[in-house]
Structures are given as C-alpha cells and as structure tokens.
Amino acid sequence: MVAPHPDDEVLGVGGTMARLAAEGNEVYVVIVTRGFPPHFDAEFIAQGRREAGIAHEVLGVKKTFFLDLPAVALDTLAHRDVNAAIGGVFREVAPDTVFLPFVGDIHLDHQLVFLSALVATRPANAGFPTAVYAYETLSETNWNAPYLAPAFTPNTFVDISGYIDRKVAAMTAFASQVKEPPHERSAETLRALATVRGSTVGVRAAEAFVSIRQVI
Questions:
Q1: Fewest CB within 10 A of the end CB: N or C in the chain?
Q2: pLDDT band at 27, cuts 50/70/90?
Q3: What average pLDDT does range 101-110 have in this prediction?
Q4: What is the arithmetic mean of pLDDT over 79-96?
C-alpha cells in the first residue's frame, strides 16, 4: 500500500488492509512524504508518525516504511529520485498486490506518487506485482475536475463489512486529521462512503478501486 501522506492509506484502503491481514496476508505500507519546517512544526510531524503507528497496529500492518520525502513539495524533486525511493521498497518487499493513490486526485503529491509507484510496478523484472489498483481518498479524489482530469470510476470492490469498524478505529487514531461531521474526514463520512460502495455490489460495506493491471 503506497500512501503520499499518513492517513491516505486508512481513508482509501483501511478496511481492505484489515481484511487482508486477518486472512493471513502480510500487509506493508509505504508513506512517501513527511512535513518539514517551516510549513510543519516538529510536534505536528512527530504526532503524525505516532498516529500512523497506532493506526497500522489496529489494521494489522506488518511493517511501515517512511521515505521522508518532502510533503507538498514532491514536484521540487527529480522524478527519478521519487521513483528510486519507492522502487527500493518494492525490491525489498516484492509485493504481489499494490494499491496506489488515484492519478486524478487534486493533490499534486498524489499524482506524482501514482506515477512513480507505477514505474516501480512495471513488469520488467521477475517478481513484479501481478495486481495493481488505485484507491480513492476523501477530499482529494472527489474534488478534482472530472472534465479536466481522469474521473474515479471504480471497477473493483472489496467487501469490508466485517472490517468497517476497524477502519474507523484506525482513522480515529489520526487525531490530528479526523474531523467532526459533516467534514469528509469524519468517521460518519467514512461509514457513509463504505455503505454507498457496498450497496453498489450488494454488501453492507465496501471499498472501491480502479484496476490498473492484473496478470492472471
């Protein structure tokens, strides 16, 4: 699971991660960026790291990789450097399934992480991921202009009916990020989106993805 920032992974894939871990799969998270002064103070940065650790423990994540590239400034780095940072983790873990942020998200960090992670998943070497999906992130995926950028049109759904409570608990661990309703990053909105996605495929709760590539 590749996240541009801490909490993106919970918003988009939290229920799926919890289900995969519960079913005996090894789940890894790559958090690509961190804040740096003067835009982010030291305590805010440390709090985000602590919150991610708690959230990932709730979800059953085996290991979290923090790449510490500059948040809201990935466009100041050479594309090859971002590719190399993400690719290094992929070579170590050799994942068979990868979840990426959606390329049409309004946040530029999300777009750049998608492109670099997609480079890392190329079927150029042995052990490449055989399944690649893009996830939706509330307040990022839904706010871009669909007539200018790709629209998120899911074609893959994961039943998280038994894991929605764990997803919400993990998001609640991000005290610095979770908001009160009707804000999109509230527990109520997370549940509402899961209900809508679930009703699409006849289950109580689901997470939705765009399939980028599957090798069967």
A1: C
A2: very high
A3: 97
A4: 96
The structure tokens listed for 187 are 């527990």
Q: Residue ranges of the domains in the chain? A: 2-214
- Asked if 166 and 18 touch (Cβ cutoff 8 Å), the reply is yes
**Residues in Cβ contact with 179 at an 8 Å cutoff, skipping those fewer than 6 apart:** 185, 186
pLDDT digits (tens, 9 = 90+) for 115-155: 999 999 999 877 899 999 999 999 999 999 988 899 999 99
Indicate left, alpha or beta for 34 from its phi (over 0: left) and psi (-120 to 50: alpha). beta
Contacts 24+ apart (CB under 8 A), 188-197: 189/138, 190/11, 190/138, 190/164, 191/164, 193/138, 194/15, 194/160, 194/164, 194/167, 197/154, 197/157
Fold of 2-214: Rossmann fold (3.40.50)
Instruction: Report CA-CA distances (Å) from 198 to 32, 183, 202.
Output: 29, 21, 6
Please say if the pLDDT value at position 99 is more than 90: yes
Q: Which residues, including other chains, have CB under 8 Å from residue 47's CB and lie 6 or more apart?
A: 175, 176
Question: Can you tell me the distance from the alpha carbon of 152 to that of 4, in angstroms, rounded to the nearest whole number?
Answer: 18
